[in-house]
Amino acid sequence: MNAPAMRDQIQRLEDEMRTMPQIEIPVRHWFADGVYAREITIPAGSVVTGKIHKHEHINIISQGHITVLTEDGMKEIRAPFTMISPPGTKRVGWAHEDTTWTTIHGTHETDLSRLEAQLIAKDHDEYLAFRTPKLVEG
User: Fold this and answer.
1) Which has more confidence, 35 or 132?
2) 3 and 69 in contact (C-beta within 8 Å)?
3) Which residues pair with 19 in a beta bridge?
4) pTM metric for this prediction
5) What residue ranges define each of the domains in the chain, with the CATH number in brackets?
6) CA 138/CA 130 separation, integer angstroms
7) Contact (Cβ atoms closer than 8 angstroms) between residue 95 and residue 76
8) What pLDDT was estimated at residue 46?
9) Is 24 helix (H, G, I), strand (E, B) or coil?
10) Do 2 and 55 meet the contact criterion of CB atoms below 8 Å apart?
């Protein structure tokens, strides 16, 4: 299956999941000079979808075991595991064990609502608009 078709399937799954009872996954926010980290622990047996990040960033799985599906296919991940995530990736994951996942971004911003706007696209169309160069008339 090609990447756009897989992305559409992941989005349809997320849309269907929104109609089901939701679990609460607390977020821990960490700030250092020029660095923001967002840490969650996904309970075993949970199916989750990730947000679309506008920029490349680091992911660290420090605990657990999770199977992840992206536009590039399925991958089984066991902690410890670190990867670079390309911008625009949409994921769905199924946690085999409680899994701690941290995303790390380079930014000096510390306001959470501004961080969300700076780092996250609400959908793939917004991501594409963000990545498309703007013409400046002179």
Assistant:
1) 35
2) no
3) none
4) 0.89
5) 3-131 (2.60.120.10)
6) 21
7) no
8) 96
9) coil
10) no
Burial of 20 (0-12, 13-18, 19+ CB in 10 A): exposed
- Is the pLDDT confidence value at 73 over 70? yes
Q: How far is CA 122 from CA 41, 52, 76, 91, in A?
A: 22, 7, 26, 14
**CB neighbour list of residue 79: distance below 8 Å, 6 or more residues apart:** 61, 62, 63, 64, 65, 99, 100
Contacts of 61 (CB under 8 A, 6+ apart): 77, 78, 79, 80, 81, 82, 99, 100, 101, 102
Please name every residue paired with 39 in a beta bridge, in sequence order, or none if there are none.
28, 102
Token readout for 80 is 């410890």
Q: Tokens 């047996």, residue? A: 45
Q: Beta strands of 1-136 (E only): which ranges?
A: 27-32, 35-42, 47-49, 52-53, 57-63, 65-70, 73-78, 81-85, 92-95, 99-106, 120-121
Q: What is the pLDDT of residues 95-136, one digit of tens each?
A: 999 999 999 999 999 999 999 999 999 998 999 999 997 766
